[in-house]
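Posting for a labmate who doesn't have an account.
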Amino acid sequence: MGNYTVDQAQRDIAQLRYLYQALINNAVINQETVQSLDVNALMTMPNNDSWTPSGGVMTSPTIVNAFTLKNGANTASVSADASNAHAIFDREIELAGISTPATPSGAVRVFADTNGDPNFVVPGGWAGRAVTVQTDTSQNTANTTGFQSISKGINIPGGSLRAGTFMRMTSGGTFSIGTTSQVLTFAFNLEANTTIQLPIGSAEFAVSTSFWWIAQGFGVFNSVGASGDYFGGLHVALGVSGGNQATVAATSQTAGGFAAYGHATSVDTTGTHTSAIQAKWGATTGSPTISGFFTIFERG
């Protein structure tokens, strides 16, 4: 291999400068001209006012068809979809956190806040966090006097919560009282805390009857850390499986809606915990059992 001459280096630098200047000046660069841009080479070149934009901001470049960004051995391609006029990225996009997003005009702006959470801001300046969703259809059953999960347990990584973060979990399924009426208690276990509980008295249920249930628990964190706190609640709706519904206790048509509210304190959000909707029975006489068949978990 021959030596890399000064002339060759100057030609390479000149080409990089040309490509970089074209990008920041909104020039159209054909795919045949640009196959890859070496990010390391661009970033390590000396500053020069003739091609470095003010404040280091690249404004609205236009590239025809596609190009590849390269950093060492890692590459990511960006291409334009000709039929739908949108950009296609073959890798994830990482957004740096900002505290004050600009207000768009006639568009939606996507950004990460200083906590790293995804946000949107719409024309007029209204901004809000994006809601992320997880779903699951596994079966989860409770048939003892201690709390057991009747939804899928969702893992919440330690240190990932912020003041103002909200979480909501919805689940549902069926339960059977068995031959003896028992108290049935629901709970929303959020960050290993079951402050929010909802006991339903045994007189509400007719024996040897099957029921439907839907429960939704939610919490909004007021503070986080080793001794955080949140405000939350739990809704539970019951219906008789396959029967006409009535809000009359101790009949085969028993149905009803119930709610609980709570303020959970001394909640340690620094560790990783599993959150779930749970249930327990007052006693196991008569073999009562409750099962959940779906879980919807939302966080924002």
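Reply:
Got it, the structure tokens are right above this. The helical segments are 6-24, 39-44.
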